[in-house]
Design brief:
Blueprint (H helix, E strand, L loop, with lengths): L7 H18 L2 H13 L16 E3 L2 E3 L3 E3 L10 H7 L3 E7 L12 E4 L4 E4 L8 H8 L7 E6 L8 H12 L5 E5 L14 H17 L6 E5 L5 H12 L5 E4 L20 E4 L3 H12 L6 E4 L5 H10 L3 E4 L2 H5 L3 H15 L13 H5 L3
Parallel strand pairs: 3-4, 3-13, 4-7, 7-8, 8-9, 9-10, 10-12, 12-13
Antiparallel strand pairs: 1-2, 5-6, 6-11
Helix pairs in contact: 1-2, 5-6, 6-7, 8-9, 9-11
Bound molecules: flavin mononucleotide.
The site of flavin mononucleotide has 27 residues, from strand 4, strand 6 and strand 11.
Length: 365
């Protein structure tokens, strides 16, 4: 590999430099492609020290050396799960993958809102499809929990069947699966969050999971744009199933937190810092409605905001958008900050901080 002779420190500063300065001046999708290429070439900074013992945790039977994951959408095609794991993510979620390959929406479809450290995307599930992604991942050993996020093709006549195909295809090679019904960029997809549709979907998905040789944990990924009644209905539906957990949340269609800023008028889902409050509130509100494990996502951009997700009720967290603005050392800072918060609270495990401020976060609409 061309960068083989470089010291780990030099390699990480090359990537860190690439990420912060050069990448921020590029068109966002070109910058993303350059980052994936850099990771594929072995340019990723590798974690130097083992994870602090305070961060070791268990999620649906998965043993995580730390509870901080890469959220779906960064590595849609499963090209770089190993480099991401070696960087120090405790989980890497690839996808969303749909049965057939699809091109997604026309470009431009990814926008930064620099003043707010927000991102708007309307990618539309651009991905290589089940066969190609399965071929790429089959047999690859990833030193972290590998999540595979599954979805439906835009033109599909039967969304539910697409998810069932995803479970059948990937149950054997994933450490967990995510049923993503919360992307705002596939028309009609989020209707699967409605009571009757959700019942049908979960029944189909969990029946297929029941037939697979291993019991792979299945998570359901929700939108933050749900009101109290919708959350009540979802909680009631999942209570009658053997779903394993929730991911809260996907991007929002609300623009309240970025009103008036450049690019705020672009269609799509908003993520990053301006999503933090809404997503964390929804996480706490779902925590009040279910005892299932929840992965908290949305707007994490510092050790403090990562800690807040656990306090609101998350058992693990994921992030994506902040890496666009904060650089790759953010992961290390978050992990060190979380371990320190555990020690400062006089506890021994991050699990001891879960839900300590749920009521506070859940108040408000
Ligand atoms: C460019 C982009 C693409 C995304 N694609 C997906 C996707 O394919 N599937 C999915 O479940 N979430 C996707 N997401 C949502 C993220 O996984 C995450 O839920 C959301 O961005 C909130 O986290 P963040 O604020 O840390 O980015 C995408 C997000 C971004 C910014």
């Amino acid at each position: 590999m061309i960068f083989e002779g470089f010291s780990p420190l030099l390699r990480s500063s090359l990537v860190a430099g690439l990420t912060r300065d050069a990448l921020l001046s590029m068109d966002p999708e070109t910058a993303h492609g350059a980052t994936i290429t850099a990771l594929r070439l072995g340019l990723a900074p590798q974690q130097q020290d083992p994870d602090p013992p305070e961060l070791r945790t268990s999620l649906c039977g998965l043993d995580l050396s730390n509870p901080v994951g890469m959220a779906a959408g960064f590595d849609k095609n499963g090209e770089v799960p190993r480099p991401l794991a070696r960087m120090g993510f405790g989980m890497v979620e690839i996808g969303t993958v749909t049965p057939l390959p699809q091109a997604g929406n026309p470009r431009p479809r990814l926008f930064r809102i620099p003043e707010a450290e927000g991102v708007i995307n309307r990618m539309g599930f651009n991905n290589d499809g089940h066969d190609e992604v399965f071929r790429r991942l089959n047999g690859v050993r990833v030193p972290a929990a590998l999540g595979i996020n599954i979805g439906a093709n835009k033109g599909s006549a039967d969304f539910v069947a697409d998810y069932a195909k995803g479970v059948a295809r990937f149950a054997r090679i994933a450490d967990y699966l995510t049923v993503n019904i919360s992307s705002p960029n596939t028309p009609g997809l989020r209707d699967l969050q409605h009571e009757d549709a959700l019942k049908r979907l979960l029944s189909a998905v969990l029946t297929v999971r029941g037939k697979s040789p291993v019991r792979v944990p299945v998570f359901l990924k929700l939108a933050p744009d749900l009101d109290q009644a919708a959350m009540d209905a979802i909680a009631a539906v999942i209570a009658g199933t053997d779903l394993d957990g929730l991911i809260v949340s996907n991007t929002t269609i609300s623009r309240d937190a970025v009103a008036g800023l450049a690019n705020a008028g672009e269609k799509g889902g908003l993520s990053g810092k301006p999503l933090f409050d809404l997503a964390t509130r929804r996480l706490a509100q779902m925590r009040q409605r279910t005892a299932l494990p929840i992965i908290g996502v949305g707007g994490i951009h510092s050790p403090e905001t990562a800690l807040a997700k656990f306090e609101a009720g998350a058992n693990a967290v994921q992030l994506y958008s902040a890496l666009v603005f904060g650089g790759l050392d953010l992961l290390d800072r978050i992990k060190r900050g979380l371990a320190k918060a555990v020690r400062d609270a006089g506890k021994s495990s991050i699990a001891d901080l879960v839900g300590t401020r749920t009521a506070e976060w859940a108040s408000g609409k």
